């Protein structure tokens, strides 16, 4: 049994060395807080945490005064291999991956916020930590300050998660908000976001859904005890959302949100997990509809717990640093008191389902013949595919011989929903299928 | 270093014995889930969890078929002292306290949801766990399925919490909702809640705020690394809330909620923590205003993380069982892989502030002379106490020589707010102080 050193010992004699890889927005806040609140960190972890090196690419770049100049080095390998705790905040795949593997090999515990790396190489990093007998933590990789990784990995350890629905990318959420509140086009809203520094010059990772997809892969891996990589996620970004789409969503009492969705199916037709990122209509009274700007929120549904929601700042230096530092305290406490971070849990090995097996709802706008029997025929097309209809709304009269009808279905598999839409395109009562959108959140 | 046994090993050879004290609503669900999902629990914790005994008071009482009759016993001490893991779900102070202490003495890890016991005897139980070198977990004690204990104890370990604001009692939240939506009196709403089983025959613990106060004490202890007991919490329940209060709140664009508040002051006038439970006006657009019925929500504000909100089911058999079982997995994993639950963290030893040092906002309704200069005089009374005014609203004209005015202040210490109200009562321009209410949430 581990010796019981009370964590309330105020002046620990032990100290642990800390190396920081990267001194950008988050790194600077991590360094500032570790320094300013050193006594708190010592009391909480049981050891004084001493930063011994901060690896940066450009030694001469201007820095926040919170970053001690004498600790800066461009020898990242030395920082990665010379410390008890290594905090990786470089981002991207390389050299982050190589440095983290070197850190584990040197016996370090590693804390990172690198979602792309975990989504691509998570199992390798977990294995390296297990071999080293040290900790691998990455709370900051998903939704900034919100403890989503912990919630899924530990709070839900006694439950069966069925569904996770999240707004996990602040940039796209900001852009969609701007389009909604100001009637901007996607390009206009993107330009505004770039001017304000909310979107990068190359916005691809955000607006094409790749950042959210990496987070979705991490979420699904944890929620379902199954390895899910970036390639397992079907992804659609927000570039094609038009001002018209936004207006129509509002007319339907909805908001368009870019969602990361991890879903478990265990029914007569399919067994496995569906993981996807796409824009969807969310009813205005759903808790996710009121998540605005750079805030993130994650809704977790589990068999026993029911619905839980976690809400907070999804990015930014200080909030992300808060997540990094909770991991630092946990990893440090393990080195002092014994114990380890949870290892990879992938025992369930659920199959990854293709996008056609995803369960969603469709909102379909049709132009139909304004003739008796037309609506019944349309309803029959859905029924033939086992899709039941939740609501039918006839829009303002278009004139002539046709009417515009908006149909929202109940949840069904994309396979059946798409078959119904295909059949509608061929149906003699349907003049045109105007739009098809997914609806999420009930 | 702890040997690294991957938690993904599917068929662990090791097993751990589990004793359950109490087979009520929560206990029944815990037993059902542990049995039905035995393979999942084995894969996640690294050991098969075998229930060896279930202690109940009345062996002959009717039971859910999920509870195996052959495991029932009325020898609670034997169950407490004969297992690796002991789950205490009896509630109340005794015999729960004696049984938990006996369990620790026998080397067990203990999981409980007993908020009253922790608020009264937390330090003693933590000390017993430390002496035994085992775990003490109590996620289920606060807000059911919502991982508030973890969030404060571990996710915020790298941050400084400044404020926690929570709706943590579903019964009172349901009663206030009924009063709001149906215009019922407190007594009518309480009777409805009792009929539906949402309130007990003796509703004291809920409606007088004692249940929420125990949770507030636990929240404050964790948030501020300081021992806070039940006696340190100033408590006011909802018995005195009238249908008029509810109507006036709505007229002010607010909802009345029973809040558990834990606040840290560190300013020129005071240093310490203020912990209290009382009804307060919450602006309708504040996230806590939309928490209805038996749902709970906890808002945490921290220096680096900013504002986080956690939302979910605060009570009920299955949600509470989910919280208990996450603790069971953690405690079991520690027995298999080494490591320990966080020990009591009370190193900060912040002073407990009296209710007069709490920072809040007041909404004051006054009947003032409808004469030039009256409003200026009233504003001057607040100013003399260093209280600034956020808004002034003149209500529908009462007639005669007086007008009704509603004033909402900015945040200030109760000490100054009360002094201002006292001065108003004596002011010649004020015919009457109609009502004074606290406003929380910005």
Automatic annotation (TrEMBL), chains A, B:
Instruction: Please tell me whether the keyword Amino-acid biosynthesis is annotated for this protein.
Output: yes
Look up the record and name the pathway of this protein. Answer: Amino-acid biosynthesis; L-threonine biosynthesis; L-threonine from L-aspartate: step 3/5; Amino-acid biosynthesis; L-methionine biosynthesis via de novo pathway; L-homoserine from L-aspartate: step 3/3
Keywords, comma-separated and alphabetical: Amino-acid biosynthesis, Methionine biosynthesis, NADP, Oxidoreductase, Sodium, Threonine biosynthesis
List the Pfam families. ACT (PF01842), Homoserine_dh (PF00742), NAD_binding_3 (PF03447)
Q: Where is the ACT domain?
A: 363-441
UniProt entry tagged with the keyword Transport:
no
According to the UniProt entry, what is the EC number of this protein? 1.1.1.3
Q: Which residues bind NADP(+)?
A: 21-28
Q: Per UniProt, where does NADPH bind? A: 115
| Cofactor(s) needed by this chain | a metal cation
Specify the superkingdom. Answer: Bacteria
What are the protein's GO molecular function terms?
homoserine dehydrogenase activity; NADP binding
Positions annotated as active site in the UniProt record: 215 (proton donor)
Output the InterPro entries linked to this UniProt entry.
ACT-like_dom_sf (IPR045865), ACT_dom (IPR002912), Asp/hSer_DH_NAD-bd (IPR005106), HDH (IPR016204), HDH_cat (IPR001342), HDH_CS (IPR019811), NAD(P)-bd_dom_sf (IPR036291)
Sites where the protein binds L-homoserine:
200
Q: Which reaction does it catalyse?
A: L-homoserine + NAD(+) = L-aspartate 4-semialdehyde + NADH + H(+); L-homoserine + NADP(+) = L-aspartate 4-semialdehyde + NADPH + H(+)
Tell me the GO BP annotations in alphabetical order.
methionine biosynthetic process; threonine biosynthetic process
Q: What does this protein do?
A: Catalyzes the conversion of L-aspartate-beta-semialdehyde (L-Asa) to L-homoserine (L-Hse), the third step in the biosynthesis of threonine and methionine from aspartate.
| Family per similarity comment | Belongs to the homoserine dehydrogenase family.
What is this protein called in UniProt?
Answer: Homoserine dehydrogenase
Protein's organism: Actinomyces slackii
């Amino acid at each position: 049994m581990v010796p019981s050193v009370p964590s309330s010992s105020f002046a620990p004699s032990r100290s642990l060395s800390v190396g920081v890889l990267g001194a950008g927005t988050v790194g600077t806040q991590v360094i500032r807080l570790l320094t300013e609140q050193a006594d708190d960190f010592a009391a909480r972890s049981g050891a004084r945490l001493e930063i011994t090196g901060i690896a940066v690419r450009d030694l001469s770049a201007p820095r926040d005064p919170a970053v001690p100049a004498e600790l800066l080095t461009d020898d990242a390998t030395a920082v990665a291999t010379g410390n008890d705790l290594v905090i990786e905040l470089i981002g991207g795949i390389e050299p982050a991956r190589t440095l983290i593997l070197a850190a584990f090999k040197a016996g370090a515990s590693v804390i990172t916020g690198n979602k792309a790396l975990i989504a691509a190489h998570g199992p390798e990093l977990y294995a390296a930590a297990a071999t080293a007998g040290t900790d691998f933590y990455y709370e900051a990789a998903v939704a900034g300050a919100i403890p989503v990784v912990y919630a899924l990995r530990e709070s839900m350890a006694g439950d069966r998660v069925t569904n996770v629905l999240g707004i996990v990318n602040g940039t796209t959420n900001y852009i969609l908000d701007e389009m909604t509140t100001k009637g901007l086009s996607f390009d206009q809203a993107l330009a505004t976001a770039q001017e304000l520094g909310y979107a990068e010059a190359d916005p691809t990772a955000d607006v094409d859904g790749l950042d959210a997809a990496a987070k979705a892969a991490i979420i699904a891996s944890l929620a379902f005890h199954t390895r899910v990589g970036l390639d397992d996620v079907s992804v659609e970004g927000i570039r094609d959302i038009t001002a018209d789409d936004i207006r129509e969503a509002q007319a339907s009492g909805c908001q368009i949100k870019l969602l990361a969705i991890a879903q478990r199916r265990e029914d007569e037709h399919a067994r496995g997990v569906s993981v996807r990122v796409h824009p969807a209509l969310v009813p205005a009274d759903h808790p996710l509809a009121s998540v605005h700007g750079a805030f993130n929120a994650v809704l977790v549904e589990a068999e026993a717990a029911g619905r839980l929601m976690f809400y907070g700042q999804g990015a930014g230096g200080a909030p992300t640093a808060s997540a990094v530092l909770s991991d630092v305290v946990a990893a440090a406490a393990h080195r002092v008191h014994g114990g380890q971070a949870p290892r990879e849990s992938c025992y369930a090995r659920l199959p990854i389902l293709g996008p056609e097996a995803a369960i969603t709802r469709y909102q379909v706008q049709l132009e139909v013949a304004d003739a008796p029997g037309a609506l019944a025929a349309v309803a029959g097309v859905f029924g033939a595919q086992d899709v039941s209809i939740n609501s039918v709304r006839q829009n303002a009269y278009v004139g002539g011989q046709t009417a515009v009808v908006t149909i929202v279905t109940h949840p069904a598999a994309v396979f059946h929903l798409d078959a119904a839409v295909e059949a509608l395109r061929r149906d003699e009562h349907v003049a045109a299928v105007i739009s098809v959108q997914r609806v999420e959140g009930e």
